[in-house]
UniProtKB/TrEMBL annotation:
The gene is khpA. Belongs to the KhpA RNA-binding protein family. Pfam families: KH_KhpA-B. The keyword Transport does not apply. The keyword Cytoplasm applies. This is RNA-binding protein KhpA. A probable RNA chaperone. Forms a complex with KhpB which binds to cellular RNA and controls its expression. Plays a role in peptidoglycan (PG) homeostasis and cell length regulation.
Length: 76
């Protein structure tokens, strides 16, 4: 999941070198933290959060064959 979020985020932002993705596991959940440059946060979230929702939808679809829930958090 970490690599999937990283590829999507690097394609969206102007500063792909500043994209940092970390992954932690808690019980039956995988938490993916995405950090981008402050100038790129709007590009990752999108208008009314549409891009963020789309990223979460793609990640949850990729995780559908596992028994774990994936949570994507976006930080700046």
């Amino acid at each position: 999941m970490k690599q999937l979020v990283e590829v999507i985020a690097k394609a969206l932002v102007d500063n792909p070198d500043e994209v940092v993705v970390t992954e932690t596991q808690k019980d039956k959940a995988i938490i993916v933290n995405l950090k981008v440059a402050s100038s790129d946060i709007g590009k990752v979230i999108g208008k009314s959060g549409r891009i963020a929702k789309s990223i979460r939808a793609v990640v949850s679809a990729a995780a559908s064959n596992t028994d774990k829930k994936v949570i994507v958090e976006i930080d700046n």
